[in-house]
Amino acid sequence: MQNNEKIALANCERKLRDAQATKRKLINSALLAFSTQGYDASSTRGIETVAGVKRGLINYHFGSKKALWKAAAEHLMSTTERDLGSALADMKQIDEEQQLRFFIRSYVKFCARHPELNRLMIQEGMAHDWRLTWLLERSVRPWYEQVCRAFSRAAELGTAPKMDAHHFYYVLTGAATLIFSNAAEAAALSGKDPLGPETVDAHADVVADLLTSIRKPL
Amino acid sequence: MQNNEKIALANCERKLRDAQATKRKLINSALLAFSTQGYDASSTRGIETVAGVKRGLINYHFGSKKALWKAAAEHLMSTTERDLGSALADMKQIDEEQQLRFFIRSYVKFCARHPELNRLMIQEGMAHDWRLTWLLERSVRPWYEQVCRAFSRAAELGTAPKMDAHHFYYVLTGAATLIFSNAAEAAALSGKDPLGPETVDAHADVVADLLTSIRKPL
DNA sequence: TATATTACTTGTCGATTGGCAAGTTAAATG
DNA sequence: CATTTAACTTGCCAATCGACAAGTAATATA
Question: Which domains are seen in chain B, by residue range?
């Protein structure tokens, strides 16, 4: 009896796990398509093919293309909050004068690990439809205010250059991410892999040097 | 006779001008669609509707969607070269130590006047297909080398911050353009028009201050 | 063992896509 | 005035789109 129950439970879990695996594969494939091609240019059939699953499973598991986009965006944003959140927790352990520099370097390295985040923001930031509204309320506005607060604290300490916080946000975001968002172009221009560890580290240093008014320690 | 000839010539020119007007309207509409929605998400029927012309005229005047893209991109790139070229000619008239600052401010203000340029580059810079190849050979590579040369000259004068030219290119381009490319998002976050003259001028100052190591004159 | 549920599969629908071809219209030409 | 040409118009085509519905197969439950 107990044995049968365990087997039944294991089967149930395996079945659930397989369904979760299908959803996970679809979300990863959707994220790739939506961030690089945009929402309208991404076909559900193409997303299913890249995910390696049968046609129709998007509508079965998510109900619609719109719901798939929301699930994929939610997955990306929660991943972002988890990864960047732990970096920001580490930040508070270090010397206050170095915090802005640490923040910027962490942000640049995160953007290199997840270029799909900024690609999606670029795709959806140009026109104001339901997807930009969703992104703004779900994560962009909180993140924007967090960056502005970090900048204001650094400005009080004198570790940030003098400028308006709004311009700082777009200078930081643009300077930090374009080389990764446009990796294909950057690779063709330089001959090097923009997402390789050396380039990422060098870029993080450049952006941090520019956007902090004190020099990095030896 | 001479009068008739003049009338005939005028009629001929009017006919030709109307055809040119149709092509111009289609190119402007195509540029808007391709830069904000991307190539695949832009429909030829939609482009014709926005242009206010009848269905079928894209294939009549350009032959195919691909040829329309090339014509629109060529128009944008020649406009860019003309506008930025005159700014760069003005640059050589001023004090050499102020040239990098003037260059950056001119570039930022141009990007605000023509956000479709950087939007198109972002759309096409993510994946390496025939459109990125076309853009690279037609204009990106020459412009990239021009920026790198301007940076190197400024570095010799000591007016540029110390960094690799490739990183300078992407820091400048990203910092200068994201606030305009993502104007819908930036407007929602700040409540102000990112393309308005005050915001553009403030942004040009911020980027120029950051990317030149000497202060602006009184 | 019979039934129900979950996960997946497949056929089909109406709408939209880019492109072609056979038109029409009007001005230019001889 | 007859003919040609340039500019535009429209009907149609195969392919693809998102979505739905009617399946199948395997597992869970009673």
Answer: 94-218 (1.10.357.10)
Residue A210: alpha-carbon gap to chain centroid: 23
Cα torsion angle, B211, B138, B121, B57, sign: positive
The nearest CA of chain B is from the CA of A217 a distance in Å of 17
Chain A residues with beta carbon closer than 8 angstroms to that of B177 = 174, 178
For B22-25, the CB contacts below 8 A with 24+ separation are B22/B51, B22/B53, B22/B57, B22/B61, B23/B61, B23/B62, B23/B71, B25/B51, B25/B52, B25/B53
Is there a contact between A122 and B121 if contact means CB atoms under 8 Å apart?
no
Dump pLDDT digits (tens) for A94-150: 999 999 999 999 999 999 999 999 999 999 999 999 999 999 999 999 999 999 999
Report how far residue A33's alpha carbon sits from residue B127's, in angstroms, rounded to the nearest whole number. 11
> C10 C1' – A54 CA distance, angstroms?
10
Report how far residue A71's alpha carbon sits from residue A178's, in angstroms, rounded to the nearest whole number: 25
| Closest-CA residue to A203 (of A218, A188, A186) | A186
When CB atoms are compared, the residue of A178, A207, A209 closest to B173 is: A178
Count CA atoms closer than 13 A to A189's CA, side-chain side: 27
The CA-based angle B18-B20-B22, given to 5 degrees, is 70
DSSP-based three-state secondary structure for B52: coil
pLDDT in tens, B29-83: 999 999 999 999 999 999 999 999 999 999 999 999 999 999 999 999 999 999 9
| pTM higher than 0.70 | yes
d(CA A34, CA B180): 22
| Cα within 13 Å of Cα(B104), Cβ side | 31
